[in-house]
Amino acid sequence: MTVCSLFECNCSQSTDILPIDLGGSTITTSASIGVALYPAHGLNDADLMNSADVAMYEAKSSGRNAIKVFGKDLVANIFRDIS
């Protein structure tokens, strides 16, 4: 099994947000992460960055604090949204 086949389905994973105490003020952070794998999602740095960027924006739109892997379903969502 290759690394790419492990990510063939789009994973979405939320993580717990831990508050940070800064001198009496509490803040929370989150991260939206887009993942693209070579060579399945791009053959050069520009294509990989574009693929990861698409996945990151999908993570943000799904409620933030998520990880999305670029794949066919993300591309299908984009075309569905613009049509």
Number of helices: 3
Largest sheet: 3 strands, mixed
The rough form would be described as elongated
Structural class: alpha+beta
With strands numbered from the N-terminus, the spatial order across the biggest sheet is: 1-5-4
Using DSSP, what is the number of strands? 5
Q: Note the run of SSEs as H and E.
A: HEEEEHEH
Give the termini separation: 36 Å
Mean pLDDT: 82
Quote the beta fraction.
15-25%
* Global Rg: 15 Å
Instruction: Tell me roughly what share of residues is in helical segments.
Output: 25-40%
Low-confidence stretches: 1-14
Describe the 3D structure.
The protein has helices at residues 3-6, 45-61, 72-82; strands at 12-14, 20-22, 25-27, 33-35, 66-69. The chain is of the alpha+beta class and 83 residues long. The longest helix is centred in the middle third of the chain and has 17 residues, at 45-61.
Q: How would you describe this structure in keywords?
A:
83 residues, two-stranded antiparallel sheet, alpha+beta, 3-stranded mixed beta sheet, 5 strands, single chain, elongated
Compact description:
This protein is α+β, with helices and mostly antiparallel strands and 83 residues long.
SSE topology:
Elements: H1 3-6, E1 12-14, E2 20-22, E3 25-27, E4 33-35, H2 45-61, E5 66-69, H3 72-82
Parallel strand pairs: 4-5
Antiparallel strand pairs: 1-5, 2-3
